[in-house]
Amino acid sequence: MNSRLFADYVRRHQWVLASLGTITATAWFMVLIGSAAFVQGAMAVSIAIATVAGLYGAKALAPMEVQVLPISRPEISRTLWWTAAVLPVGIMTTGKLLGWAVAAFGRPVHAGPEAIWLSAAMDLVAIGTVLCSIPLVQLVSNSVRSPRWQTVAGLGIMLPVLTGPFVPFFLRHQMPLTWSDLGPVSATLMAAGALCTTLAYFVRPRLMIGANRHAMAAAIASHRRSGFWLRLDHLTGLRRMVFQVWRTATTSQVLTPAFIAVVAYTAAGVFEGGQSPWQDAGWLGAMRDLGLMPFEAAWEPTRILMLFMLGSFAFRVEPGMTGTGVLTSMRHLRTLPLNTRQLNGILLGLSLMVWANAWLVLAGYHWVVTREPLASFRLVWFLGLFGVDCFNKAMQLRYGSKGLANLPTFIVLGLVLLAAVRTGLPFEPTFLTLGAAGLVAAWFVNQHTLTTRRKIYAPQRYRPFGMEIPGQP
């Protein structure tokens, strides 16, 4: 490991790392004084958060400028392992221990330090498994000539790996709190994850920060010949971008519930001999438990986190390999005859369109599955989540966070839910107020960003999303 490179990464991201530790300590303090079920849910969520933080660390450690320094690739790769795996797990574990120490001072707690160490081990092997899969993606990128099939093969490898850390969330009711509670399947999976984590340290991949990642992004964004999705070549300019945002969001929002149902059904049959909280209700019970059936009368407001992910992740500001990337089109949007307020309205309007589409997709699922009328349109929750997500997108645009703003927003939303449950606050007025405040704040943050941040209008390495000319490369 290169100590100077590691120290430089910590210095550049000290506020992000401090926020991660503080939020973790606060969350674990609240769940430890809650119930054992809260602790099990926190352990499951911790795996997903640690994986996201690790991926961010792997992506942010070594930009192209680092590769020209007199540092060998193996040294960069091992430093990446420390920053992406050990550092976030260490900070989160420290936060958990601080939360436990404060909670245990004069209060009965529902889990001890053993649960925290077990949670840390689960976090570490989850990140290590993802890091171990990077060489496979690079091997496919180098061996397959067609950029389009590079994308298909790369996503075929990464999709199961990236969704794996979220599987424990489906089975959070069975999360072990002590090492002795580990069943044979869980112990085997942890052993396999530990092996992958070890291999990730010794395997020396070429970092995916160059042509391979950009080629995959270009293949997805390309609309030459026949594309993977519906396309209308006669659309140009702003209308084309709006259509592509809608198309990409619809694809994500239609496939995500179906994919979650399949994963939940499969995981319930594999983990711990098929003893699942949805054993009688099947995959529909899993959908209800995750909050993806909001139009039923029995839907509980505490299950809105997956709803937020469904609407928020389908529309992205920053560029990436998948999904939208409106930031790549800001330079082109600025050349249109639009003033700053109109451009601000377009950004908020795109979020509104995506959230309305998510509501329509879930209503369609509700009718197909249950064949019953909607018990409620849940407009209060729609407005609350829409406002929070607008503020989330505004912060992404303002600070160029590359999607990292999703993580604290997701955690804060969970803390608000937990605080509302603990204090007895009414859910609907709380989230309506939160959404209204987020929408107003998003307007002013966007207005300030669009008028003062020249960086968002700089040329991007990716093709402009939705603003390219049809028929041209």
Main features:
mainly alpha
Describe the structure.
The chain is mainly α and 473 residues long. It folds into 2 domains: 1-222, no CATH class; 235-473, no CATH class. 68% of the residues lie in helices and 0% in strands. The chain has 18 helices and no strands. Helix 2 (14-32) packs parallel to helix 17 (406-423) and helix 15 (340-370) packs across helix 16 (379-399). The longest helix has 34 residues, at 237-270. The chain is globular and about 60 Å long. The chain starts with a helix and ends in a 21-residue tail after the last helix.
Whole-number tally of structural domains: 2
Q: Indicate the multimeric state.
A: single chain
Average pLDDT works out at 75
What is the count of DSSP helices, taking H or I runs of 4+ residues? 18
What's the end-to-end separation, in Å? Answer: 41 Å
Radius of gyration: 22 Å
Given the C-alpha coordinates, what overall shape results? globular
The fraction of residues assigned to DSSP E strands is under 5%
What are the low-pLDDT stretches, counting only 5+ consecutive residues below 50? 207-230, 271-279, 469-473
Largest sheet: none
Structural class: mainly alpha
DSSP helix fraction? 55-70%
Order of helices and strands: HHHHHHHHHHHHHHHHHH
Please report the total strand number as a whole number: 0
How would you concisely characterize the structure shown here?
With 473 residues, the protein is mainly α. Helix content is 68%, strand content 0%.
Give the arrangement of secondary structure elements.
Blueprint: H1 3-12, H2 14-32, H3 36-61, H4 64-67, H5 73-103, H6 113-143, H7 147-163, H8 167-170, H9 184-202, H10 211-221, H11 237-270, H12 282-289, H13 305-312, H14 330-333, H15 340-370, H16 379-399, H17 406-423, H18 427-452
